[in-house]
Amino acid sequence: MNNNDWQRVSPWALLYFIVHFAIRFVKDGLLNLLPILVIFVTQVEQKWFWGQVAASIAIVMLVVYAFAYYRNFSYRISSENEILLNKGVFKKERLTLKFARVQNVNIAEPFYFQPVNLVNCIFDAAGSSAQEAVIPGVKLSYAEHVREQVMAFKAQLQQSDTPEKAEHAAQPSAQHTLTLSNAEIAKFGLMSNMAILALAALAPFMNAIFDYLETSLIARLEAMFNEQAAFVGSAAALAVVTVIVVIVLCAVLLSVTMALIRFFNFHLYFQDNKFKRVAGLFERQQLSISSEKIQSVQIKQNIIARLLKRYTLICPQVSSGNTAPGVAAHKNKQTLVMPVLTAAHVQQVCRWLFPWFINLNELNFIKPERALLYKNTVLYVFLPSVISVVVIDQLFETLSMLWGLLPASILMAAVFLRYQKTGMALYQHEGRSFAVFRTGMIGTQYRLFEIYKAQSATTISTYLMRKSGLKSLYIQLASGSVSMPYLKSVDAEQLIDFVLYEIESEPRNWF
Amino acid sequence: MFSNQQIDTLPRHHTIKFQPLADNAIWHVQINWLLFYIPLMTVIVAVRYFNQPFADAVSAPWLLLLPVLVVLSMLYNLYSVRVKGIALREHDIAYKRGLIWQQVTLLPISRVQHTEIHRGPIERKLGLATLRLYSAGGMSADLHISGLTDKQCNDIRQFVQSYGYDNHAAVDELVDE
C-alpha cells in the first residue's frame, strides 16, 4: 500500500467537500456576515428576490470552491510512515502527519457515501478536532488497511519501548460486544440535557415565538376551551399551559431525534484492549480507542436516568488544553460515550477495562467531614433564607415570611443530599491503584481513574479549615478534574503523597 | 525490571521547605496594583472636579476611601507575597500561595507538557520573570509563578526539559538559590 506517488481521492469526495465547507460556512462564516444580514433585513426591499439571488451565488461559490479544493487535494502514505496531504485553494498547504503522532484512525461513513461504498478515513493527531487529517471518499477496505498499517507501526514502536508488552500482544483476546437498541438510544434523548439546550437555542426568539403563539394558537385554544361547557377554571391559563406542554414535548422530541442521529444502531466491540464503536444515522462513525488512552471513566446517572434505571458511561481521552474539561469531554469527537446502559451493562463494560470492577456501592467511600455540611448550611441555606426573609418582610406581610421556609427546607435537603453523595474511595488490584470519586445530589456521578494518570494535585485550606485540621483535595486529570472537600489534613496530605508516589514511580505511559 | 513493593512510609510533601520568591517580587506586585489604582483615582477625582452632580453625589470624605483601599491592598500584597513559596524536588515542583485560601500545588515534572517564561516591562526592569508550567487537560497553566528571578525561571525550565535524561542534575544548586 505504501507508495511514493501522490493519489487523488474519488470524484465522490466532492460531495464531502461541499458538505464540509457548507457546515464550516454555517458555523464560522455566518457570524461574520451578521452585519450584512442586518443591513439586508433593515434596508433591502424585495427581500425574497435578493435573498434568492444571494443564496444562489453562495451555493455556486461553495460548489466552485469545493471543486477547486477537490482538484488540488491529493494524499500519500509515504514509505517513511507518514501521511502527507496536499490541500488548499488560495493558500496551498502540505500537512505531514507521522504515524507515531496519530492517536486514532477513525472511519466515518456518511449517508451520501453509502450507495457507493466509500468512507472517510480520519486521522486524529492529539485528541482535538483542530489537528485532524481526513482522507475523504476512499474504499472501506483501503481505510481499514491504512488503519491496520498505522496501528501496527505504533504497536511496533511501543514494543520496542517496552519489550515485555510483546508477549501480551502476541495473544489476541476474545472479542466482547455490546449492542444498544434504538429504543434504548431514544431514552438518551430523554435523559440528556439536549432538550434544555434546544430550548436554550430558541431563547433569543422566545419573544417572537410567544407573540406569534399568542395571536395564532393561544387565542384559538382559549376560545375552544371556553366552548366546553364542562370546563371549570380559566380557559386562558389552560391554553398557556397546553402551549408550554407542546413546546416541551417538541424539545424532547428534538432531543430524541438528535440522540438517534448521533447513536443510531450503536455497536461496541472490545478486543485486545481496544474499543471500537460504530454508530450514527447520517454518518456511520467508527471510533477506535485503545484502553490505555482512556484517562478516566465517568458513570453518570441524572434524575431522569434514575427513573429509567439507566446510566451513561463516558470515557474521555486527553482533552484539548484550551477548552474547559467538562465541555471538552462532550464536544471532543474522540470521547467514547456509551449513552444508555443498564447496571448490568455498566458492570460488563467496566470489567473489560478493569477486571477488578465491583459494584461501586460496595466500595468503602471516605466522606467529607461534618464541617462541610455546617459550612454549606450557613452559606447556601441560612444566609439566603435570612436575606429572603428580610426582603419579604419589607415587601409583604409577616405571614408571607412563612413561605420563606419552603425554599429553605428545599435548600437544606439539597445541601444534605449533596453532602451524603460526596465521597471518594481507593482500590488496589495487582499492584495498580485506582481512585473513585462520587458526587451528585439526586443523581449520581462516579469518576474512576488509575491514580498514576493524574496530572497534578493541590490542597486547599482556609484559616478556619486549618484551625479545624481540615483540607480540601483537588486532582487535575488529563480529562477534567476531581475534588474531595473537607478531609482531615492528615488524610489529605497522605493522599497527595500517595498520588505523587504513584505518578512518579510508575514507568507506564499515561497517554 | 520495575517493582512495586508495599511501602510503609511515603515521601511527605508537607515537610517541604519552600523557598520564598525573589526580593523584588513584592515591588512587582505593588507597582502592578498602583498602576491600576492611580489611574482609577485620577479619573474619579477629575470627574468629580468637572462634573458638579457627581461631586454632589460623592462627598469629599468618600474620596478618602480609595487611599484607604490602596493601603489595605498593599498590606494584603505584602503578606500574600510572603506566604508564596516554591520548592523543587527530585520529581516534582511544589508551589504554595494564598493568604485566605491557602493552596499547595504539586506538579510532577513528568507531567509537564510545556513551559513558558514571560517577562513584562516592569519585570524586566526588576530582573524578574513569570514561569508557567502546563500539564495536559487543564484550562490554563497548572503552575503560574510570578516573582522569580529570570535565572531561576531558566534554571527550572532547563531542569524540567532535561528531566528523564539526567533528573538528578542541578537540583541542589537550584534549591540553594
UniProtKB/TrEMBL annotation, chain A:
Superkingdom of source: Bacteria
Keywords: Membrane, Transmembrane, Transmembrane helix
Bilayer-crossing regions: 12-42, 48-70, 190-210, 230-261, 377-396, 402-419
Domain YdbS-like PH: 70-149, 264-315
Record-given protein name: Membrane protein
From TrEMBL, chain B:
Keyword Membrane applies: yes
Keyword entries, A-Z: Membrane, Transmembrane, Transmembrane helix
Transmembrane regions listed in the UniProt entry: 31-50, 62-79
Domain YdbS-like PH, residue spans: 85-144
InterPro entries found in the cross-reference section: YdbS-like_PH
Signal sequence segment: none
Name the record gives this protein: YdbS-like PH domain-containing protein
